[in-house]
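quick one, two chains, predict together pls
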Amino acid sequence: MCGINGIVAYHSSSSVPDEAELLATRDAMRARGPDGLGVWWNADRHCGLGHRRLSIIDLSDRASQPMTSSDGRFVIVFNGEIYNYPELRTELETEGAVFRTTSDTEALLHLYARYGAEMVHMLRGMFAFAIWDEQRRGLFLARDPYGIKPLYTANDGWTFRFASQVKALLAGGHVSRDPEPAGLVGFHLFGTVPEPFTLYREVRALPAGHTQWVDEAGPREPKPFVNLAEVLARGSANPTPTAELPERVRAGVLDSVRAHLLADVEVGVFLSAGIDSGAMLGLMRDAGQREIRAITLAFDEFHGTSEDEAPEAARVSEIYGARHIVRRLKEREFFEDLPEILEAMDQPSIDGVNTWFIAKAAKETGLKVALSGLGGDELLGGYASFGDLPRWRRRFGPFAAVPGVGLLARKLIGAVVPSFALARPKALGLLELSGSWAGTYLLRRGLFLPHELPVVMDPEIARDGLRRLKPLRRLAASLVPDPRSDSARVCVLESMHYMRNQLLRDADWAGMAHSIEIRVPLVDFKLLAALAPAIGTLKEGVGKAALANAPSRPLPTATQIRAKTGFGVPTGAWMSIAADEALGPAASRTENKGLVSRRWSSTVLNGLAQMDHRAKVHAA
Amino acid sequence: MKPSPRMLALVTDAFGGRGGIAQYNRDFLDAVAKGGAVSSIKVVPRNARGFYLLPEKIKQTPAHPSRSAYALAALRTALSQPFDLVFCGHLFMAPLAALIARLKGAKLIVQTHGIEAWPRPSYSQRMAVEAADLVLCVSRYTRSAVLNWTAIVPERVLVLSNTVRDIFTPGDGSALRAELGLQGKRVLLTVARLDSQDRYKGHERVIAVLPRLVAQGHDLAYVVVGEGHDRARLEAVALRAVGSERVRFLGEVEVQSLIKFYRMADLFVMPSTGEGFGIAFLEAMACGTRSLGLNVAGAKDALADGQLGTAVPETELAAAIARLLVEPKRDPSTLAAAVRARFGREVFAAGVCTALNRLMEAA
């Protein structure tokens, strides 16, 4: 993990960028890269690049960034890891490339020099990078297929800026803080701000799996280079026999775990008592890693109860011979860290708190890199949504297809049984939204539903934000082409929305805050392509069972059974208390998880708004 | 090889028109015609009062001031011959332009200037802008305002700044100064309309700080060039503030005289809060005279964020005038060259080519 940033004064009328701005943006990302820093300007100072380094591959100073090609034409800043770097290097050397370092960054320079924008198709890994081409006087940006690494841009019409964090761009002092209604509405709908929007109109995410070119004519519209739905549609068209699933999963995930171990520093693992992280640990062992530190987050509240994950994690750790570290978390520490958590949160999110603490624990042990089982549920049908969405579509879809029925039912229930509407607000949307996959998914994942927005936020902002965000159209667009099976559709929706905008972003900011690189072998485009023919025919539980059995020594049966019952985390209760303190007591002491999340979302938003206000006052 | 596109330009006024928008449209269409990206341009104006010469490749229909007659004329022209590009020179015409672009299967460029594009426009105008393939704005501020009310992809909204004509050059202004009896005085100049709807231009802000500046010992004269219905009121305001000798209202002047006024002034000052861009700043600086404005709206672009001129908050206006009057003058030729390097005709023409190439590469 690193922090990258840059400024390109592309317009013929624009002013030469200010070095102080470049440095302010770069140094706002100190935690992303505590091991080194660099800055580079082209000859006429119309392009400046900045970098903060967390050294993981090639720890020497030669691999520092911004890195210039040997002929001086290309300069790169790169955040991420290219896992197939050794193979790429071998191929490039065969073609005559001469390497000065052993870093994957240099491989990107050689690839771009040879293949231009097409080079992104050759990369396996998580990446966000920018390459300045002095000859063409343009900047090429790219972001990995899943959006594991962040990349934000801001264009004021004269000058283009980019950085790994929204807050870093704002810290430069030249990016507008005008609000983006679509970002605010998106947060209320999903509990996270859906890309490409942010809370600020001028700041946008370069969408996952996209490239962008910027030259004297300004930034071009981002271009996609991958399409998850298409990969799954192709897979569904050529389904693999069910009997082949275990072997496909084993081979695919082992290959991905092996690739994700590439590092010149120790790679640890976040271990819960679930299947995904347990399988990661087992496969790390199969991939040949000898010393493994496995870190488990445990809660004093659960100590000695069946909710405690530590004992099961300890058993799994013992099976695979890992050094198990249990980090216990108390309520007091949660509240002590809360201001820091909000400070580190780049954009508002209703999640990420657990990742904050596990990353904190990893940092305390001296680790820089850890594998996580994030992505297993999206890839292998682990969420209840894989069953819920098709079921809701079947049961309620036909009613929802009748114009006006959903609206009528909502109004009627709201008027006749207001207590039901208050306790189960999302149930009111069932007949209105389940007519499409997009609507059903919004119903399943939504924090608030569109019809509730005018009550929880300024009605005009809600209306404007919905018009700009177009949530249903956006969700539907991610299912083009149609992945041709229920499980493949849910896989695409969960991967491209919940995982991309929530889980991966949370993993980035929460990990980054502690200078920990979180690697996610189950979020790998090559693995997706390998498993795509099997995803369309996945039956409930089969995919996760295959993952549990993927290590040469499978996960214990107790772990597999235990995982199905789920685990509780007390952070939900703590969030509820925090929300009480910020907003006043909840209407009901027996509120469900969804209602706690709603109140927590207001707490987060208020906290970030206060910080934003302070920053504005400071800047003025 | 693909034939060069043919452009239909719907404008309020261009050739034969007066004012900043007409000038911009002329500059734009002239640059398009000379740039070679299009084979022909048919201009449909609402107004064309004065005498004009059309550049090569450009033809203009008779003007139609009435809205309905204009719409009919534009539709008739559009349907009578093939067009691949529709240029809409004003937001008010965007719905008509969008309709024509759709009927013709043509690409649509919408030009926004300033104050007309800042508030949220009508539904039909907003939809028309969202249908555009390219939106051109004269400043970053106008671009930002447009993006506030449209859901258009931001990469399709480009800044194409105003340009300054080559006739504005540095020179000796002492003859005019003598003619006006202003020898030995420090001369402030504003060039702007004096209509009541243009009070944002800031004449009163300058008048309001004059007594303080005079009290500080500056022997000042404030020259106002421009005409409008608000002139009498402003004259009365000036009279009350500093008497008749210090402020001179000289009405509208021809361009050759205007150049002399710019050269004669010690400081061009226009503390306007509503500039789409503020071309008068460029004209003054191209004549070698320093310029001062507020750091709001499009003026920030014309003053290049303080790198060409000076942009200050309103509260610092008096202090800024006082400081600039005593600071050594920037070499007029150097200032003029710096202005041309950013906003000269060649830079503008290149910007037009770049924008059209963007449109073509997206085809």
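Residues 486-512 of chain A form the longest helix (27 residues).
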